[in-house]
């Protein structure tokens, strides 16, 4: 299990984490800042020059997940991780990666009053703080980013007001909350981590204006089509129908028709595999109004134009959609490799 201590700089995460390790039996401390420091040594200067902070790089988020999993495999017990996560997409990627490895996360937000945060930040403004001077990913003004993140943070985490609490007192309250379950496991889908190439089926659903439905997963960054990995022995189209029912509460009346077969190239740590897109047809307004979202898997949905989708989907996924729309217009099936037609 992981106890993730989140909060703005100056919230006392590291001091509280050190106290918490003393209270929780069989626990250890993982400081992700050390991974950022290591990247400054390991990465070529040219790559480092592209960002203000190594924690803005995808490799840092992957390292956090892999290091946490390796430490837990080696040590067992509880891992205490003090780290600021103010971008929800970073939380999704890291917590989703941990969930895929069946590692439960207790997400705790240390939330002293903003006046206290300002006082603490001012006191160390001219010195290198315990976070080694690394700015939070994505925003140089930590308090501005923290304030903007509070709506999703307070909904996602166990919130602990530490305005008048010492690190030892805060750690005691966290230990009690974890033990009695009030600091519950972070509600995020636990998608099994693939060990080989996978077969996935997506279903395109359209509104009366022929806009396509995209969903916003909680467990990874970026938008996606409804659908998922096909289970062993399951027909792909039926797998897509099952995923639509599980994700959106929508039970399709007919088996969707195939639009594209796309081979996704393995890109470590991903294994790639076959990606199928099916035409699930047009949704009536009444059906769209009844769409349900499982909070542990999806946070939102939206009908978008092809142009809007280009700004929301990763490039290869967008190309898959683009060619699927062309196949739908031509009433044909297209064979793709990494989003490019072949044959």
Task: Walk me through what this model shows.
- The chain is α/β, with parallel strands linked by helices and 343 residues long.
- It folds into two domains: 179 residues, P-loop containing nucleotide triphosphate hydrolases (Rossmann fold, 3-Layer(aba) Sandwich), CATH 3.40.50; 144 residues, Nucleoside Triphosphate Pyrophosphohydrolase (Alpha-Beta Complex), CATH 3.90.79.10.
- It contains twelve helices and 13 strands.
- The strands form three sheets. A six-stranded mixed sheet has the order 8-6-10-9-12-13, sandwiched between helices.
- A hairpin with a 2-residue loop joins strand 12 and strand 13.
- Helix 1 packs across helix 8 and helix 4 runs parallel beside helix 5.
- 37% of the residues are buried.
The count of DSSP E runs of length 2 or more, i.e. the number of strands, is 13
Q: Give the number of domains.
A: 2
The sequence of SSEs as H and E is EHEHHHEHEHHEHEEEHEEHEHHEE
Structural class: alpha/beta
Count of separate DSSP helical elements: 12
In one word, what is the shape?
elongated
Radius of gyration: 22 Å
Q: Which runs of at least 5 residues are low in confidence (pLDDT < 50)?
A: 128-140
Could you say what the CATH architecture of the largest domain is? 3-Layer(aba) Sandwich
- CATH C-level of the largest domain: Alpha Beta
Average the pLDDT over all residues and give the rounded result.
86
Q: Say which CATH homologous superfamily of the largest domain is assigned.
A: P-loop containing nucleotide triphosphate hydrolases
Query: How much of the residues is beta strand, in percent?
Result: 15-25%
Q: How much helix is in the residues?
A: 25-40%
The separation of the N and C termini measures 49 Å
The major sheet is characterized as: 6 strands, mixed
And the CATH topology of the largest domain? Rossmann fold
Lateral arrangement of strands in the main beta sheet = 8-6-10-9-12-13
